[in-house]
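Same chain as my last thread, 445 residues:
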Amino acid sequence: MEKLKFGIISLGCDKNRIDSELVIAKLNKKYELVIDPKEADIILINTCGFIESSKQESINTILEMAKYKKIYKCKILIVTGCLSQRYKEELLDLMPEIDIILGVNNYDKLLESIDIFLKNNNKLLYCEDNDNFIYDGERVLTTNKHLAYLRISEGCNNFCTYCVIPKIRGKYRSRKIEDIINEAKILANNGVKELILVAQDTTMYGIDIYNEKKLPFLIKKLSQIEGIEWIRLMYAYPEEITKELILEIKNNLKVCKYIDMPIQHISNSVLRRMNRRGKKEDIINNINMIRKEIKDICLRTSIIVGFPGETEDEFNELKKFIKDFKFDKLGVFEYSQEEGTVAATMSNQIDENIKKLRKEELMLLQQQISRELNENKIGNIYDVLIEKYENGIYYGRSYEMAPDIDGNVFLSSNENFRIGEIIPIKITKALEYDLIGVVYNESCK
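reply #2:
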């Protein structure tokens, strides 16, 4: 009998991507993966349910794929991920086109659920609340083969008033060091050069199972794996960044001098309403310490505008902070009023138009900052990881650029470079978020 074919659509964050890669490996044991969902007998959508825009994208994707049951080959429509975990029965009631719904803790039920549905056509729902384990195992990478996201923990204990992640993903729980190292070795043996460490909060790694923060130790162990050349740190809470971590980033040659540290706001009054652990003074002190210790550090952050009660003065304080501290990379998000969160019940919700205007104002400011910082890089030489070749142009990233969010280094060359190769590039031109360069050799001096 010919194998059934499956397609997968993965939405949302890097942690969701890892879940999708685990799901693909599981389905691959019995079914055949296809890229085009038009060819799929089974379509699985791994959803995001974090904020309103991501929920809407997930719902629209489900509705679009539901049409494939009528006009193409699709026999089974499966919905997994954060949206299904968050809304459970509501999805099945509102979208009868869905055949199987699995939560973030129930991927072990996937193959069994498909078998049951094929036999009796019964709709199935498994969405358990379980925060005692972390789903891991064999993965099929959906990134370029030279990079992989590596999950070091799951869940979150921070309980920011705007965030539903603790309710969806459960309490904070770290993976064992030996499990992470074993997975990293497998990835390296398969050609991965760049590991991107992800969690809801990477800085708290180990606190639950080792009774201390073990991120610096973990990074050191990962850097000893042959084949791994870059280690990148994402989602590091600024108030939890320690001197030990800073020194490990500084002194470890394999660690990208890059930290993603979401601060969300700088006004102490807003931070209190958000239930963020740190204060303005803590954030500023850590930024100054990082920049003092690590030459050429690249700092990325994310900001929320329009949080309930955000006054003009609080917004202007944030704007001044961004102007003064000049982050290398910055993302701005409009506050999303999410049911089930404390912030959703707060008075003084901000008008949507004001949120939009504040976001635009900060993004314009950051665009100017980014352009100025990039212009200062003209003449600099960077090791660049080549990721794509298209229409005579190579696309690559320096240590300052995380994939998909931070821009590219472009170069035109008659040389034949391999995807995944790291080559020296001299910067010749700067754009707002991207850089243009030439291959660096003796003639460039």
